[in-house]
Amino acid sequence: MPRFVDRVVIHTRAGNGGNGCASVHREKFKPLGGPDGGNGGRGGSVVLVVDPQVHTLLDFHFHPHVAAPSGTQGMGSNREGANGADLEVKVPDGTVVLDANGRLLADMVGAGTRFVAAEGGRGGLGNAALASRARKAPGFALLGEKGEERELTLELKTVADVGLIGFPSAGKSSLVSVISAAKPKIADYPFTTLVPNLGVVSAGDHTFTVADVPGLIPGASEGRGLGLDFLRHIERCAVLVHVVDCATLEPGRDPISDIDALEAELAAYQPTLQGDSTLGDLADRPRAVVLNKIDVPEARELADFVRPDIEARGWPVFEVSTASREGLRELTFALWNMVDAYQAAQPEVVPRRPVIRPIPVDQTGFTVEPDPENRGGFVVRGVRPERWIAQTNFDNDEAVGYLGDRLARLGVEDQLLKLGAKPGCAVTIGDMTFDWEPQTPAGVDVTPTGRGTDARLEQNDRVGAAERKEARRHRREHEDEQ
């Protein structure tokens, strides 16, 4: 049986970038033909796309993990790795994307709207792209970046022109079923509808959509019952209609008190889309009141009695009966006029333009702070230093030397000296911790040695032949003395 799911938490993981290739061109009669390692491919991104054919978030309820493919590694002969394909995930119209802290990231309305939920990692550079005057044939390549991982919350807010609100069993589902082709499940339930019902209503040559928001109760704005799960579906409605049961036999209830109770919940509710540029604030939406079930004689008398009090608030009042279909035609045309007038009064929606914020020239792009967990140590934070750490293969001394040159040119060495860093102190960048050695020259041209090696990092603990010969001579002299 189909289920309506309007709120899910998904885990998105973009693809990793492919590693670069460290290769040297080899051809007959052309030894050491130069570096020809290609770059790694870019990882695929996870992209949310609005699809009009999708109406629920049910698929994410059963499959909350979404992962895009990774890029492939670069190859010799300057062949670049293949890029990972972007994974397009279809979501229904009206989906709101929130981050783990509840901050609004995207309001996806309109077919084809796209949002990059997780950005794919960039591919690493091959040694052909790293060749320079100082390193004519680098013996290393950069690693690919990790893809972005994010935990997102998707909330579906029903896109409808008219929202029907009221207490449970007020007749909202019955009203939707008689003014549209929707066929919600209707019976004399002691509880409310569990999912919103959408119906398309025709008013002459015009059509509009009506949403039956499941019944609300006092305290719904504070989470009582299932109020918070249903109040979100009225945020996009241009017109709110109170459906009042005039034939209820519950003690202490009457049309005026029902309306006041629901208005108090609407005023206390803080919507995610507060100040939506397309419809304005929820408190400013036009209201209408439908006095239902007037086919019952006592209900008709009650409707005639309370009608003047409701009209005094400036709201139009309609007396209808879903059983005898009395007053339905006038109601549909009046609702269309209200929807058309309200939408025409709203400012025209201007497509959002991309905002480009260039980085200031004097921005160094990193910070150096004392390490709170390691006395005498320092922590370097910044997008570029942390990215360079992730791209470095620490099993290759030449790659580590290249990293030191990049950090020195960025100004990390100078900043550590200004803060009083001592030789051998721990310096943490990203996930790596180093023993800082300021006497190691960095940022200067270094005479290359073998491929994959760096003279500044060479630590040869092997005992040479001359040292072994001298040690034997000392042992013999010591034995002769004994």
TrEMBL record:
- Where are stretches of biased composition, namely Basic and acidic residues? 453-470
The enzyme class is hydrolase
Location of the Obg domain: 2-159
Query: Which residue stretches belong to region Disordered?
Result: 437-482
Entry EC number(s) = 3.6.5.-
Question: Where is each OBG-type G domain found?
Answer: 160-340
Name any cofactors this protein relies on: Mg(2+)
Give the multimer and partner information: Monomer.
Extract the HAMAP family matched here: GTPase_Obg
Q: Which PANTHER family match?
A: DEVELOPMENTALLY REGULATED GTP-BINDING PROTEIN-RELATED, MITOCHONDRIAL RIBOSOME-ASSOCIATED GTPASE 2
Matching NCBIfam families: Obg_CgtA, Obg_CgtA_exten, PRK12296.1, PRK12297.1, PRK12299.1
What is this protein called in UniProt? GTPase Obg
Q: Which organism is it from?
A: Mycolicibacterium crocinum
